[in-house]
Every structure is written in structure tokens, then in C-alpha cells.
């Protein structure tokens, strides 16, 4: 089965290592997830591959994403590093390959690494290509460079405390789907009074409310969890239809609180 769009929710694997990563992927797939997100930098591609293989779910039914780290952006390195990812993931292709971060200080020109990414797609190493942590101006440049080659997603941090509105709206205007990482703000959503209140009124968890809010904006959430009960709850959060009033209350929590902000990050919008 060839996916033309991103599944509505994914299982994130950031910070999952060894057997935890293996079991979490296997469990997510058994619960009905069909979108698994990893990256070279997570150092868990082999375990993610094991989890997929041992799940018994056919590879063609799974949407698999990985990301190229910023020390592998030179054209010659990029293709080699993606082939290494495929070997670790035990697959002949991924469904989506992202540039994990734009090249710090434009050390490698965007033309070079996006050109190499497009070549990887032509060679059948990846079905779709995309970007991650790109600003509005960088999305415009990427779109210009790639021309007719579609950018499937820009994966950025999105949660109730960082709505990332400017980037989300700009991506959507350009026809680029936004994938939202850290939708639970590394667990901080559990402690928020507004989210707790809405959750208790609906007899669900604050995490489910946060995921429902991300999804209500047309953003694909990729929460990470090792516990099957949490994975199941995250999946079920997609069924929650928030009212306009609830959405406004959650919108008001935006305080620009960015969790992923390394020293090589771009100048954020």
C-alpha cells in the first residue's frame, strides 16, 4: 500500500532506547498505529526495525519516517547515511525522509542537501521527502528549490504551551502538512489546570485533550510513550471533538515555551 498522505497520528520514538524502543514499537503497531517516527540521531533505528519486524504487521502497511542529522547533509554523505538507516531499519525504503534540522549557519547550502534528498527519492530509497524545524523563510526557500517535488511535511514542536502558529499557518498555506512533535510538552500538559479541568469534564486525561487540540488544528501529533495503556489513550484522543470554547481556552495557554532549542537551531519565527 502506498501512502499518499501522512496517517493522522504517529508513534514518536525520541529518547526510546534498546528493548524499550523495540517493545514500544511492537505494542503501538498491535494497538493500531501505522505511522512510526524515528531519526538517525535517536540511535534506535535498529530497535525500531526489530519492533516492526516482530510486530507481524506487513511492512507495506506501515508508514515509516526517519531523519537525516545535520552532520550528514553534504550530498555524498546524505545518500550513504540514508542507506545506513535502511540497513538498520531492515527495510529497502522508508516512506518519509526528513532533514532533521536546517544546516547550522547554512554551512551546507540548502540546494545541495535538498537536491540530494530529491535524488534519494528518485532512487526509491524514500517514498516522500520533507523537512523538520524549518522557519517560514526556510520553507519558502525549500519550496523554491524543490519546485515540483512535493514537501510532505515540516515537523516542528507543537503543544498547548507552544502553538507555533506562524509556522503552522505558513506551512498549511504552502500545502505542507505539519507534524507536531512533543505534543505533550514532555508531560507538562498533565500539570496544567485548564487541561485538567477540560479533561475531568470529559472523563479523559489532559494528555488526550492536548492531542485532540493539536489534531483539531490539522497537525499530525506524534506522541511518544512506552506504556501500552498510554499509547492506546493517545490513539483514542483523535476521537475527541473539542468545542470552540474549549479550543479557545487551550489556545490561551500559548506562552512560546520551546523545549527543543539546541544552540544550532535557526532563528525561530
Tags for this entry?
eight-stranded parallel beta sheet, 269 residues, 8 strands, 10 helices, TIM Barrel, alpha/beta, single chain, 14% strand
Amount of beta strand: 5-15%
Question: What is the CATH first-level class name of the domain at 11-183?
Answer: Alpha Beta
| Strand segment count | 8
Per DSSP, the total helix count is 10
User: Strands across the major sheet, in which order?
Assistant: 1-2-3-4-5-6-7-8
Integer average pLDDT: 97
Unreliable segments of 5+ consecutive residues: none
Using the coordinates shown, work out and report the CATH topology of the domain at 11-183: TIM Barrel
Describe the structure.
The protein has a domain at 11-183: NADP-dependent oxidoreductase domain (TIM Barrel, Alpha-Beta Barrel). Helices cover 41% and strands 14% of the residues. It is built from ten helices and eight strands. It has an eight-stranded parallel sheet with strand order 1-2-3-4-5-6-7-8, covered by helices on one side. Helix 1 links the parallel strand 1 and strand 2 (35-37). The radius of gyration is 18 Å and the shape is globular. It starts with 10 loop residues before the first strand and ends in an 18-residue tail after the last helix. The model has no long low-confidence stretch (mean pLDDT 97).
Amino acid at each position: 500500500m502506498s501512502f499518499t498522505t501522512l496517517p493522522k497520528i504517529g508513534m514518536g520514538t525520541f529518547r526510546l532506547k534498546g528493548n524499550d524502543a523495540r517493545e514500544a514499537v511492537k505494542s503501538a503497531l498491535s494497538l493500531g498505529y501505522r505511522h512510526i517516527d524515528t531519526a538517525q540521531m535517536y540511535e534506535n533505528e535498529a530497535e525500531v526495525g526489530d519492533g516492526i519486524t516482530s510486530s507481524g504487521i506487513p511492512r507495506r502497511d506501515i508508514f515509516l519516517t526517519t531523519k537525516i542529522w545535520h552532520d550528514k547533509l553534504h550530498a555524498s554523505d546524505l545518500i550513504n547515511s540514508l542507506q545506513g538507516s535502511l540497513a538498520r531499519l531492515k527495510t529497502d525504503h522508508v516512506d518519509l525522509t526528513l532533514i532533521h534540522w536546517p544546516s547550522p549557519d547554512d554551512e551546507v547550502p540548502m540546494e545541495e542537501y535538498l537536491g540530494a534528498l530529491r535524488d534519494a527519492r528518485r532512487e526509491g530509497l524514500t517514498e516522500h521527502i520533507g523537512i523538520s524545524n524549518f522557519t517560514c523563510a526556510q520553507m519558502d526557500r525549500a519550496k523554491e528549490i524543490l519546485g515540483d517535488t512535493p514537501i510532505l511535511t515540516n515537523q516542528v514542536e507543537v503543544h498547548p504551551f507552544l502553538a507555533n502558529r506562524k509556522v503552522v499557518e505558513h506551512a498549511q498555506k504552502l500545502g505542507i502538512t505539519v507534524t507536531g512533535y512533543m505534543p505533550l510538552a514532555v508531560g507538562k500538559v498533565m500539570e496544567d489546570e485548564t487541561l485538567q479541568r477540560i479533561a475531568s469534564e470529559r472523563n479523559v486525561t489532559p494528555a488526550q485533550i492536548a492531542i485532540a487540540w493539536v489534531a483539531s488544528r490539522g497537525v499530525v501529533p506524534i506522541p511518544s510513550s512506552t506504556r501500552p495503556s498510554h499509547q492506546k489513550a493517545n490513539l483514542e484522543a483523535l476521537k475527541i471533538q473539542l468545542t470552540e470554547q474549549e479550543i479557545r481556552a487551550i489556545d490561551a495557554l500559548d506562552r512560546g515555551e520551546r523545549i527543543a532549542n539546541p544552540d544550532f537551531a535557526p532563528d525561530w519565527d
